[in-house]
TrEMBL record:
Gene symbol of the encoding locus: mtaB
SUPFAM superfamilies: Radical SAM enzymes
Cross-referenced Pfam families: Radical_SAM, UPF0004
Chain coiled-coil ranges: none
Cofactor: [4Fe-4S] cluster
Catalytic activity of the protein: N(6)-L-threonylcarbamoyladenosine(37) in tRNA + (sulfur carrier)-SH + AH2 + 2 S-adenosyl-L-methionine = 2-methylsulfanyl-N(6)-L-threonylcarbamoyladenosine(37) in tRNA + (sulfur carrier)-H + 5'-deoxyadenosine + L-methionine + A + S-adenosyl-L-homocysteine + 2 H(+)
Keywords: 4Fe-4S, Cytoplasm, Iron, Iron-sulfur, Metal-binding, S-adenosyl-L-methionine, Transferase, tRNA processing
GO molecular function: 4 iron, 4 sulfur cluster binding; metal ion binding; tRNA (N(6)-L-threonylcarbamoyladenosine(37)-C(2))-methylthiotransferase activity
Residues of the Radical SAM core domain: 171-409
Identification of the protein by name: Threonylcarbamoyladenosine tRNA methylthiotransferase MtaB
Native source organism of the sequence: Clostridium aminobutyricum
Similarity-based family: Belongs to the methylthiotransferase family. MtaB subfamily.
Length: 479
């Protein structure tokens, strides 16, 4: 006999609902509402999804960040001083939505500057990067204790265990799902504050990753993107070494090997791999996995050996080009995206020209250009030879243009080839579907047959032929 669910004020009460949530429904006649704001990287976005799911399971309702809410959670970024400023702005903005709300601030800015965050008017809870999974409990504790301000921060050197936030069951995207597999970084690039914000390297249990992937694939997601603070460091701890199919597996291969065996219509993409960790030989071992998209994000940061050394990047341009050559020898259409910083302290005009040169040599399909921003707490902040703003602006403009030319050349190379596109949306104003090819080109597909039920065409793999350059990508025709 099925047990009848309890219903209070017209709301069905699930077994997972917390006592506090049930009391709130009784008192207010509605669910306690929560709004979130995420700043920064894909890892933060993933973690916010995990936070929201925990609150949903406890009986809370998710509302938009612009709406009135009982609880606001701001997941902050601190990669630059500008990111700190944006975080502060959103904290104040969201509190104004409801002066009586609970405001909880988490993420990298909260970890690095807890005292500064605590002093912002209206902040009730401050948590570090390894306390996000506890937020629902901390919010309810605060609502009962009525304390003015509570701070939960652990020193980054003591953060040694991966915080499992549970299996994600949904994403805002309907087609592509991120899975966090790793946390922390021990590379300590001279410009980067993130190791101090995220702590030591910790890898997520392989079975939890596989279980999450299975769940998301069953829900219909067609592309699984493995991400982390430094994805290439996954599984490098000794206890993560596995043996499978009569050979030893290390690092991210542990996960790729399991995903390769799974059933379902899906593909795998890596969010990034750091040349500080991997080399051409390691990349060669990844090429055997059929589900893995022929696209890697390889952050070079500079084309100059002098600047790479000053950045503490632990590789040189020749080693980077070895990786590129390995990929392109395997597949001339292999997509490579990158990040480059201009105006790093001490960067000469010759150093900058080296960056322009490597963009020309590699043929990237996308170059993300960043102007160096001084970040207190990093070694680079105290270096000599800081570049004038007008020089950084000029170099940034020049490199952005070079990046566009590089992408166009790569797109041109692909004309006439056949590709697989995961259809993500329909653009009414353009009369075409759009999505990404396996090698990460933005693809536009004209709706020549005037497909009536366009919803059924979405989230499908479509075989296309590349016809020409179009907008920020390529125009394709269905085969």
């Amino acid at each position: 006999m099925t047990k009848e669910k309890q219903c209070i004020n017209g709301i069905e009460i699930e077994e997972t609902y917390s006592r506090f949530a049930i009391d709130f429904i009784k008192t207010h006649g509605r669910k306690n509402s929560i709004a979130t704001k995420t700043l920064g990287c894909k890892v933060n976005q993933y973690e916010t999804e995990a936070i929201k799911e925990k609150f949903i399971h406890r009986g809370y309702e998710i509302v938009n960040e612009e709406d009135f809410a009982d609880v606001y959670i701001i997941n902050t970024c601190t990669v630059t001083s500008l990111a700190d400023k944006k975080s502060r702005q959103y904290i104040r903005r969201m509190k104004k939505m409801n002066e009586a709300s609970i405001v909880a601030v988490t993420g990298c800015y909260a970890q690095i500057s807890p005292e500064e965050v605590s002093q912002i008017e209206g902040v009730n809870i401050v948590t570090g990067t390894n306390q996000k999974g506890r937020l629902v409990e901390l919010v309810e504790q605060h609502l009962e204790s009525k304390k003015e301000n509570e701070c939960y921060i652990q020193d980054y050197e003591l953060i040694n265990e991966y915080e499992e936030t549970g299996i994600i069951t949904s994403m805002e995207s309907r087609t592509r799902a991120y899975i966090k597999i790793q946390e922390g970084c021990n590379r300590f690039c001279s410009y980067c504050i993130i190791p101090y914000a995220r702590g030591n390297v910790r890898s997520r249990a392989a079975q939890d990753i596989i279980d999450e992937a299975k769940n998301l694939i069953e829900k219909g997601f067609k592309e699984i993107i493995l991400t982390g603070i430094n994805t290439a460091l996954y599984g490098m701890e000794a206890e993560f070494n596995h043996s499978s199919d009569n050979r030893s597996l290390i690092g991210i291969e542990i996960i790729l090997n399991e995903l390769e065996k799974m059933e379902g219509d899906f593909r795998i993409r890596l969010s990034s791999l750091e040349p500080t960790v991997i080399n051409a030989a390691y990349v060669q071992s990844l090429l055997q996995y059929k589900r893995l998209c022929p696209h890697l994000h390889l952050s070079i940061q500079s084309g100059s050996d002098n600047i790479l050394k000053a950045m503490n990047r632990r590789y040189n341009r020749a080693e980077y080009l070895d990786i590129v050559n390995t990929l392109r020898k395997f597949n001339p259409y292999y997509g490579i995206t990158t990040d480059i910083i201009v105006g790093f302290p001490g960067e000469s005009e010759e150093d900058f020209r080296d960056s322009l040169d490597i963009v020309d040599k590699v043929g990237f399909c996308k170059v993300h250009v960043f102007k160096y921003s001084k970040r207190q707490g990093t070694k680079a902040a105290d270096m000599k030879g800081h570049v004038a703003p007008e020089v950084k602006n000029r170099r940034s403009d020049e490199l952005i243009q070079a990046g566009k030319q590089s992408a166009d050349s790569f797109f041109q190379l692909n004309i006439g080839s056949e590709k697989t596109v995961l259809v993500e949306e329909y653009l009414q104003d353009r009369g075409c579907f759009t999505g990404y090819t396996e090698n990460y080109m933005k693809a536009y597909i004209k709706d020549e047959q005037d497909i009536l039920n366009r919803e059924e065409f979405l989230n499908k793999f479509v075989q296309v032929k590349v016809e020409k350059l179009y907008l920020d990508g390529i125009l394709c025709k269905i085969i």
